[in-house]
Design goal:
- With 726 residues, the protein is mainly beta.
- The chain has five domains: 1-72, no CATH class; 74-129 and 313-470 and 696-726, no CATH class; 130-171 and 278-308, no CATH class; 180-277, Elongation Factor Tu (Ef-tu), domain 3, CATH 2.40.30; 499-693.
- Helix content is 12%, strand content 35%.
- The protein has ten helices and 63 strands.
- The strands form nine sheets. It has a 15-stranded parallel sheet that branches.
- Strand 60 (628-631), helix 7 (644-651) and strand 61 form a beta-alpha-beta unit.
- It is globular.
- The relative contact order is 0.08.
- Residues 429-602 form the Right handed beta helix domain.
- It comes from Anseongella ginsenosidimutans.
- This is Parallel beta helix pectate lyase-like protein.
- Keywords: Lyase.
- GO terms for molecular function: lyase activity.
């Protein structure tokens, strides 16, 4: 057999050597192929890696002059290591390297017989970072197991488990969907000799019910218990150092808490990783001996159930260098599935937006890279990161879902040394267009749908972003007014909704940071943003946000307010509809000497809560005029402690604004079209087509983007329960 493979490969090389210069080259890959084959459709290769090696060889022999295509047949391809491309694999502007799944090249129409976009997703070839586990064995009707004696094969541990393509939940208490509230918390600094202490012990005091979860666990099990604490916008996750049953306290260790976000008594938490917690369908637990236990969900049988666990942290790496970037590479009609996140023995320190965590697909020093009609799913980490020195690249019409952390990350965490706008090392001109990005935060609740760190001139447009525990879109990574390269980013025509779920605080539909001159946030529809404590905002200009235009946005049903500025400079908020927020409609926090923002030509409509939620709105330096305010319950709208006329006279703001019904067709049913434009014409409001927000294309793609009504109903239930508790 080996001689036959070598002979076939020799004939392939001989034919290649005798061919002058080919006009084009296609290499085919199929799960039934062999890497010793010629790579034709009749004799496909077995792996993408082998196809890349063939192309590298052809390039070295100067045998290429046309387009290069690697065509992958439907099937699952289990990766032994991440697929890696470098500058050596670059195509050209005229002849890019194209790696695509066989079938619909651009995803415009589902494959014949598929019927729906979901079916088309199933037809994509899958590059998988997972391994299939042995079959389940029955322990009892409600408990199965798998023996995994060679646990080192999985890195000594398992981070995530998927059964029949559905994410399982590590055994926890309380069960998923609920969280404990801390009774109190404190910290003891251990390393006090250093100018900046590096070691601390945190103490968390429990209620009797919470302590009861741990009582009775043997010491060996207690050593494996993990506590996950969600405090404000952060999450801290650690192994328990000790449990004081008598005083109902647990202790964890690590770096000292940031003074601006400690484990105070409004935090929420849960315990996980003990067999005693294994009590709900879909939960799993790995015993240190190598036995994996699983509680089956309704409808699952041993015969029809297959378990997969990820073993790779990354599935695709595109790594150029400063001298030779990876460039002109296209990926079409491919699914990347099953990436891993493993927490090490030190646990996770708090980090806003889970910023340091990696992604299933990572790009550095790359340009003119495009992903079209691809899928990324079942990740332990983020979906994709255009990180260092990436430019002129895009991800379009792709389906990113069931994400362990967040969706798309753009730019590095640190500004390139000495960089200024437009310098080569600044990540820029990344387009994220017409994607479905939803269901994230399963490993880190702090994951963001799309986040732009230190990067400029990027466009986030026409995306469906939903079902995350934290912010939908985050732009900028500088706190305050120091230099930032994050300029001229466009966040336009996105549908951003059902975020927060009452788990984290200080979050927004669109969240901005730092000097951002030229950045535009427009024509987005943002709704159902609900935080745990403070800060469930629709549009949120946070620390130092500067030079941002926010216009033609529809923002409704947010917990804290539709618009909030913590502090910033010269932001323009105009021609937006802010409607039916829960607690308040508008907020501002810090009073500064300069003009903080301008608030003109907006409609503020509400039927619950108050108009102004923070006193900063009354005292801050900003301009406001030609706005329409309407409270369905009363025409005596209060601006803080002032009546409307007192507000106008004392501040000089809203001189030409009105208290009037804007004339929506059915605001209670979230139909914000106008049946009468008489009043809005008085303030110069220009109606915009908010139905244009979200994905576009064929009807099946739009249908796939629709939010699950059961999830929406569950979100409403969460809000109702939280509001009742308040």
């Amino acid at each position: 057999m080996a001689n036959q493979i070598r002979g076939t490969f020799f004939l392939f090389l001989l034919a290649l050597a005798c061919t002058p210069r080919v006009h084009s080259q296609q290499l085919h890959v199929a799960a039934t192929g062999s890497d010793g084959n010629a790579g034709t459709s009749a004799q496909p290769l077995a792996t993408v890696e082998a196809a890349l090696e063939r192309i590298r060889l052809m390039r070295k022999q100067n045998k290429l002059s046309g387009p290069l295509e690697i065509i992958i047949a439907p099937g699952t391809y289990f990766l032994k290591k991440p697929l890696e491309l470098t500058g050596e694999d670059s195509g050209t502007g005229e002849f890019p390297l194209i790696i695509k799944g066989a079938g619909a090249a651009n995803g415009a129409v589902p494959a014949k017989g598929a019927g729906t976009a979901k079916d088309a997703e199933a037809e994509k070839p899958v590059l998988s970072g997972g391994v299939e586990l042995p079959p389940f064995e029955e322990v009892s009707e409600k408990l199965w197991k798998i023996q995994l004696p060679a646990i080192e094969r999985f890195g000594g541990n398992i981070g995530q488990l998927f059964v029949n393509g559905q994410r399982a939940i590590r055994a926890r208490s309380p069960d998923a969907g609920r969280l404990f509230k801390t009774r109190s918390a404190g910290e003891i600094i251990i390393d006090t000799d250093r100018r900046s202490p590096s070691v601390a012990i945190q103490k968390i005091d429990l209620t009797e019910e919470q302590a009861g979860v741990l009582k009775g666990l043997p010491p060996s099990d207690l050593q494996q218990v993990i506590i996950s604490v969600q405090h404000a916008w952060d999450r801290t996750r650690k192994y328990l150092q000790s449990f004081d049953a008598e005083n109902a306290s647990v202790y964890i260790a690590g770096r000292p808490m940031h003074p601006w976000n400690t484990l105070e008594n409004s935090s929420q938490f849960y315990f996980e990783n003990a067999k005693a917690f294994l009590d709900a369908p879909g939960e799993w637990y790995l015993d240190p001996s190598g036995t994996l236990y699983y509680v089956p969900r309704q409808g699952e049988t041993i015969e029809n159930s297959k378990a997969v666990t990820p073993v790779l942290d990354q599935l695709l790496l595109i790594r150029g260098t400063e001298k030779r970037k990876a460039s002109h590479i296209q990926f079409e009609n491919i699914s990347f599935k099953f990436s891993r996140y493993l927490m090490d023995f030190r646990g996770n320190e708090p980090a806003q937006a889970a910023a340091p965590t990696g992604a299933a697909v990572m790009l550095d020093y790359a340009e003119n890279i495009e992903f079209r009609n691809c899928g990324i799913a079942h990740t332990g980490n983020n979906a994709i990161w255009f990180r260092t020195a990436c430019s002129n690249s895009a991800i379009r019409r792709s389906y990113l879902h069931d994400l362990g952390i967040g969706g798309i990350k753009i730019g590095p965490l640190h500004q390139p040394s000495g960089s200024e706008d437009g310098k080569e090392l600044v990540t820029k001109h990344i387009t994220v267009d017409n994607n479905i990005i939803r269901s994230g935060g399963h490993e880190f609740p702090t994951g963001v749908g799309v986040i732009i760190f230190n990067a400029s001139d990027n466009t986030i447009s026409h995306n469906e972003i939903a079902d995350f525990r934290y912010s939908g879109v985050s732009v900028g990574w500088v706190w305050g007014y120091s230099h930032s390269v994050s300029k001229r980013n466009k966040i336009v025509y996105n549908h951003i909704h059902h975020l927060g779920w009452g788990e984290l605080s200080d979050m927004g539909g669109v969240y901005t940071l730092g000097p951002s001159e030229g950045t535009v946030v427009s024509n987005n529809v943002i709704h159902h943003i609900y935080s745990y404590g403070y800060g469930g905002w629709g549009l949120y200009t946070d620390e130092g946000s500067t030079g941002i235009l926010m216009e033609n946005n529809l923002v409704y049903r947010c917990k804290s307010s539709g618009f909030h500025q913590h502090y910033g400079k010269d932001n323009m908020i105009r021609n937006n509809i802010f409607a039916s927020q829960v607690k308040a409609q508008l907020e501002a926090t810090r009073v500064e000497d300069h003009r903080s923002f301008t608030f003109n030509n907006n409609i503020v409509y509400f039927d619950s809560g108050i108009l102004i939620g923070k006193p900063g709105w009354v005292n801050a330096r900003f301009e406001a005029d030609n706005n329409c305010y309407w409270d369905t319950r009363s025409q005596d709208i209060r601006f803080g402690n002032c009546s409307f006329s007192e507000w106008q006279d004392s501040t000089g703001k809203d001189r030409h604004s009105i208290i009037a019904n804007p004339g929506f067709k059915d605001a209670a049913g979230y139909d914000f079209r106008f049946k009468n434009k008489k009043n809005i014409s008085k303030i110069g409001f220009k109606p915009f087509d908010y139905s244009a927000a979200g994905v576009y294309g064929d009807k099946e793609w739009k249908k796939l983007a629709l939010f699950d009504p059961q999830r929406a109903a569950r979100f409403d239930q969460v809000i109702a329960e939280r509001e009742q508790d308040d």
